[in-house]
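Two proteins were folded this term; both appear here.
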Amino acid sequence: MTEGVAISISDVSLNYPLNNKGIGLLREILTGRVKKESTRLFRALEKISLDVKKGEVVGLMGANGSGKSTLLRVIAGIYAPDEGSVKVRGRVTLLAGIGTGFQYDLTGRENILLTGSIYGYSKKEISNMEEEIIEFSGVREFIDQPIRTYSAGMRARLGFAIVSNLEPDILLLDEVMSVGDTDFRQKSRNKIEQLIKGDATVVIVSHSKSIIKSMCDRVFAIDDGKIITDGSIETALEYYESIGK
């Protein structure tokens, strides 16, 4: 990878199988071992190439189903590309959707420990971060209750608090910057700015024009699995408006 680049995506393409069903399909997607000879394929990503610099905030915009979230999951290593390569420098964390990855029968506190362990932190390291996570999330009163008793907003706040306090080198956010009330959204923005000052790299998928304009250094519009703009924020927003969003 070029010096100063945190994410390097080169000619990445990804196919989704369409006619398999059940857990077998999920296993094939996650392992990259799709049985192409017997499967009808949908081209989810087409020859994506993009370098993201260390400390940069990049936004991805596009209609639902355009490939934005799929690209984040390829960067995170959840999906294996069929063609091309993805290289990352540092620890990657992904927050995708409300409460993604939570075990609903475990308490909020237990989910903090579980998530931190998944990302390779020791119990002592997680314990040192726990108080800050709880305070940031604003769910202290419910932290020892099962996640299934939380509202969607509470799960989203706790999820953001966990991944942002794990001090990631690369933070991937999929439609999570609009959750919570005004105060929490401002706290979230401040936290991301703090991470950036520490040289973290952030990639944001969002439909919010205000978030994209205020937080991103570059923005790319994606359509039909392809990057179709050059990184200019204004160009991406103009395209987004042209498709009626």
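Next, the second protein.
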Amino acid sequence: MKVWNVCLLVVTAVFLVACEPDMVVEQTLVPETAVSPEQPPVVETVEIVRELPVTVEVTREVVVEYVVEVTPMPLGSPSRPVQLLFPPMQETAVIKNRSAALVNALQEATGLSFEVGIVDSQQRLIELMCAAPQDTIGFMSAAAFVVAHEQCNAQTAVVSVGTDGLSWQTGMIVTRRNTGLTQLADLDGKIWGIPDTTSVPNYHYIKAMFAEAGIEPAEEIIYPGDNSALLALHNGEVDFVTATYIP
């Protein structure tokens, strides 16, 4: 009886083993770079460059020089009258009235056109004459003519004679007596009284002479005329003055 029971147990065990289904094992290999479900997918942007033909307009600037010959108007024509230049020796109205007869006489004698011009000073007159010597006729003092002749070889055509019979004019330097100012070098560092800064013989010529000798006045005081400058010298306001020389 015991033997039977053992055999029954053995048979039952064998049956259970035979009825157990086969086990299938599936293995999935996950690469090391796999993305976990919690992470969003990685989106890669790929830039595609395509070459397209482009037309570029190039502008080149070319400088062309042309030589143009200009024919000047004939001298003495209405478009290019001969210039009669006067310094401010008198009032402007006086110079224009007195020069009108001269202009008419010249036009009748030559058939040319003339025009009167009144400049600021004899120095300016010299500059204009030297700039256009063929177009200008200047009326100036003897000292101004010397400067114009040195600068641009100006030539004399007519020389005026004053009521004193002299055909020349010059300036002078005046000092007070007993001042010890007897030489040109003594004027260095002194006060200069000037009657007219536009005058060539009384200012520009003497100023050039000072510069050549190395003389520099301490001060320049301008007066309205010769008489005012000489009176200032008499009153001791200045050390020396320049004025028109009258023999």
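The CA atoms of residues 47 and 53 lie 19 Å apart. Residues 82-152 form one domain. These notes refer to the second protein only.
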